[in-house]
UniProtKB/TrEMBL annotation:
Cofactor(s) listed in the protein's UniProt record: NAD(+)
Domain NAD-dependent epimerase/dehydratase: 3-251
Protein name in the entry: UDP-glucose 4-epimerase
Keyword Isomerase: yes
Upper classification of the organism: Bacteria, Bacillati, Bacillota, Clostridia, Eubacteriales
EC number of the protein: 5.1.3.2
Source superkingdom: Bacteria
InterPro entries hit by this protein: Epimerase_deHydtase (IPR001509), NAD(P)-bd_dom_sf (IPR036291), UDP_G4E (IPR005886)
Catalytic activity: UDP-alpha-D-glucose = UDP-alpha-D-galactose
Pathway stated in the Swiss-Prot or TrEMBL entry: Carbohydrate metabolism; galactose metabolism
Gene Ontology biological process: galactose catabolic process via UDP-galactose, Leloir pathway
Gene Ontology molecular function, alphabetical: UDP-glucose 4-epimerase activity
Swiss-Prot/TrEMBL keywords: Carbohydrate metabolism, Galactose metabolism, Isomerase, NAD
Keyword Nuclease attached: no
Length: 329
């Protein structure tokens, strides 16, 4: 296996790269460092490059004898995607189409693709299985769904073999504490709550407490980043075994409200967090809970972090020791 990881300096990418490298796999990270961090790359091979730079991509594929790609490089903020759709369609759709062109030209036909629970929109039922209708409520989810559809067509016409992984809410950090979550701007609930614990923010805003849920706040399915990383490795192995293209959800199957997450963080940190009720955020579905039975059944995926406090503990260790993240942005 010679694996190219685009976006391997980002949050989920860097955790996957570290795990692949530890397993002794040949990994090359390809990242333009616009969002990613050089210090997050825990493998020897790094190419600073953009997915629009066809020549550099082709050089990387040839130079490292690449035979599969894990494609993380994308913009992934729901709110931002509503304000800047052009940026999201350009990067996530056109950029990925360009990557696919270069892959096919060089006969690289195995791809693990980062998709998202945002493809479902307001789900017709929970827990969400892969087959329910997809009506994304935000541009980010739309861009990922467009690419899933394109890959399905490429799979049929050009022999591309892909596995799309629909992540629910990625969170936590590697237990060794050397890599973690560092977005700028940060918009995700758990890092914002922990930054509030560190006194870096005045308070945490709860976006809406009038949803039809047990305490009125949104319910999400929080999944540890290393459990996600493991799923990518299983997906790669499945492709090398010659399995067909497929799509899988990745979540814990448990839902937590925003208020429950804040309470769990208070227990883990021992710090009382100041909360404010704020208006709903555009594009937020009320409840997103995954059924991950399909990937458990077909690829033997077995998430190890099932306790939300244990998950938050790993994130807390990272944030406490890296209050400014990687310190490069
Ligand atoms: N939230 C707050 N206050 C904040 C930040 C978030 O109340 O300051 C709430 C949100 O409204 C939401 C929940 O906390 O109800 C989780 O929000 P995040 O921003 O952490 O995550 P999202 O659920 O919006 O999105 C994440 C990923 C997406 C992915 C989605 C799938 O960022 O890429 O999970 O479930 F599509």
């Amino acid at each position: 296996m010679n694996i190219l990881v685009t976006g391997g300096a980002g949050y989920i990418g860097s955790h996957t790269v570290k795990m692949l490298n530890k397993m002794g796999k040949n990994v090359v990270v390809y990242d333009n460092l616009v969002k990613g961090h050089r210090a997050a790359v825990k493998c020897p091979n790094f190419v600073e490059g953009d997915i629009f730079d066809s020549e550099k991509l082709e050089w990387t594929i040839k130079n490292y004898n690449i035979d599969s790609v894990v494609h993380f490089a994308a913009y992934s903020l729901v709110g931002e995607s509503m304000e800047k759709p052009q940026m999201y369609y350009y990067n996530n759709v056109q950029g990925t189409l360009n990557l696919l062109d270069v892959m096919l030209k060089n006969n690289v036909k195995k791809l693990v693709f980062s998709s998202t629970a945002a493809v479902y929109g307001e789900p017709e039922r929970v827990p969400i299985t892969e087959d329910i209708s997809k009506n994304p409520t935000n541009v980010y989810g739309k861009t990922k769904l467009i690419m899933e559809n394109a890959m399905e067509d490429y799979s049929r016409s050009y022999g591309l073999k892909y596995i799309a992984l629909r992540y629910f809410n990625a969170c936590g950090a590697d237990v060794e504490g050397d890599i973690g979550e560092d977005h700028s701007p940060e918009t995700h609930l758990i890092p914002l709550v922990l930054q509030t614990c560190l006194g870096k923010r005045e308070s945490i805003k709860i976006f809406g407490d009038d949803y039809n849920t047990k305490d009125g706040t949104c319910v999400r399915d929080y999944i540890h980043v290393n459990d996600l990383a493991e799923a990518h490795i299983l997906a790669l192995e499945a492709l090398y075994e010659g399995r067909d293209s497929n799509v899988y959800n990745l979540g814990n199957g448990n839902g937590f409200t925003v208020k429950e997450i804040i309470e769990a963080a208070e227990e883990v940190t021992g710090i009382n967090i100041k909360k404010e009720i704020a208006p709903r955020r555009a594009g937020d579905p009320a409840v997103l809970i995954a059924s991950s039975d399909k990937i458990k059944r077909e690829l033997n995926w077995n998430p190890k972090f099932t306790d939300i406090k244990k998950i938050i503990e790993t994130a807390w260790r990272w944030h406490k020791n890296h209050p400014n993240g990687y310190g490069d942005k």
